Amino acid sequence: MPLTYKSFCWSIGTTSFRTKDFNRTIEVQLSLLNEFWGIEENQAVDWVHNNDIQTKYYNFMQAKEFVEGDAGNKPKDAREKTSGLVDIGLIDDNRRLTSAGKALLSLSEAGDFHSDNHFEIPKDSFIYLKQLLKMSCKVDTETVRPFIVMLYVLSKVGKMSLDEFTYLLPLCINRETTDEIILRIEDVKSGSTTVDEIIISRLLSMDNYKEAINLFLSAESVDECLICQIGMNRKSRSYDKLYFALYQALHKAYIQNDKSAFVEAYDVARAINIGGKWIKYLFGTATRVSLVRNAEPHIKPTAFDNVTNEADFRTAFFKIMHLLKAKATLHDYLDLNRRYIKTTDIVLFEDDTVRLDVVPKHFFKSVMDVLYEQAYISSDLLYDDCKLKEISNCLIINDEVVIKCINAELGITATTIDNAREALEFMRYKRFRWLIDNKFSDEKLLLLLSYFDKREDAEIRRMVTYNADVPTIFEYVLGILWYKVSEYQGKILDYMKLSLDADLLPKTHASGGDADIVYEYPETESYPEHTLLLEATLADSSNQRRMEMEPVSRHLGQHLLRTGNRNSYCVFATGRLNINVIADFRSRKNIPYYDTQDYSKSVSGMKIIPLQNSELKAILTHGKHYKDLYSLFEAAFVSELPPHEWYNQCLANQVK
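The structure assignment produced for this chain is given below.
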């Protein structure tokens, strides 16, 4: 019987649905599917095994600019773009929206994601939480519900390193392996074992790996065919042909003591799909020229160092080959697992540590004995927009439970839900301040502002998040900058009208919404009580007037009409200002804004202060505080200079 690859870990979704703006993309996909199946000629058509309808849906996505380019295999691409949503129960196998999918689409269309649950997470996150609690996958012959398993492991170990989350958690595919991994995680933390040793041990406990290593060790000689057999490549044996050349090179280097063979090993490794991992494992340099000059100083300690005979060498090669393959697979799944899990907004990924937020941590630990009974069976409720307690009778959470959770975490004795939430909010602001200090120093903010100017979007996403579009990230960065300028006063997390994930990073929704940052200032010696509306855009100068002049004026005008506080005003931030935008905003000093429902009501003297990124940089660089800026903005507002002179003289030159 030929050796075959068997899955050894779980993953959520599919690596083909690795996408930026994850929340937004899911919402758009649901909307597109809903529209597509609403077309009369599509309504009675089956999706399964139907390349025609799958091609048609791909073309539909293309027409809606949801996909770029032209896929070589349109049916496959259409399946891959939607399969992750099947896995978490938002659509069924026939790609129709389920009750859960319709509930999420309804939220997206309404644009209301505010929390209405005891976990204090957004409404969409609560739907994702329920879906992941129900979601299961098959690993060979095993059924596992990854999210419940993760909750169980965290209830036992408290928190995991990112490496433990990446390489060990997905190995938990049944009760036995989960109990073993929990014990071994404790060993990793104590330093008595390593992640690599655990992975190798797990692989070698599987029947197919046992058979493979026995075949390898018992063979009289090693050839390409044998290497391809024991490689058990999950796609095709032919992918492992290069490993024979690597085996030969390493055999020369370690068994025949031919140090020049390390260059040969380097060259072969570079041609292997995961060759970078081999190079990192074997060498302390990534450059070939260093090995050519003198390989020995760059050879790292490895499992090959202590081999003294053929059997030892083959054992070491087998273990390292499959360790690196397994780690490549697990690392490939990391991004996917993390994106799906983050949609729940109850798991924190901070400082390379994975842990549950306060209320989920204590709540799920308290019910885990009952909930864990469902960890290795599938749920019949995956497609349903059900209540939390329908998933398991233990999942009943109320004010008393929340108070108990918060008291347990913070060591306080809150007796009311309001007091408990105040304590939790205080902790949340401490976390946000830590995030700012560690991720958004003045230097990093200045660098981000430069990236916004150049529209180096890849760098911006790398520095902040991949789950928000760049305009949303700009609003977020502006909010942080202004929080610093305001000397960390005020409830900035409330003022930023953005959706934030559990790690307090921005995420974009399909519906968009009000992008203002509405900053509330109480009366001080430096200024009266007022509200500052911060508007941010990355529209270039040619599009600013068309896209921003009316919304900015409207937002401020409606605010002034609604509140009656004529001290309130707006700051408009952008990369580079258009002169006519400046002129339009200055004209609002004299042109009234009318209530469209009652023409007898209007406001005059609207103060709109435009700022380029260059001035935002100057404010940071020169340590300007809001109390300084308020008087500067007021002086600029009352100036009578014409617009083409006004900006440079009253703003640009003054913030330096």
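Interim note for the steering committee: Residues 91 and 98 are 5 Å apart (CA to CA). The longest helix spans residues 310-342.
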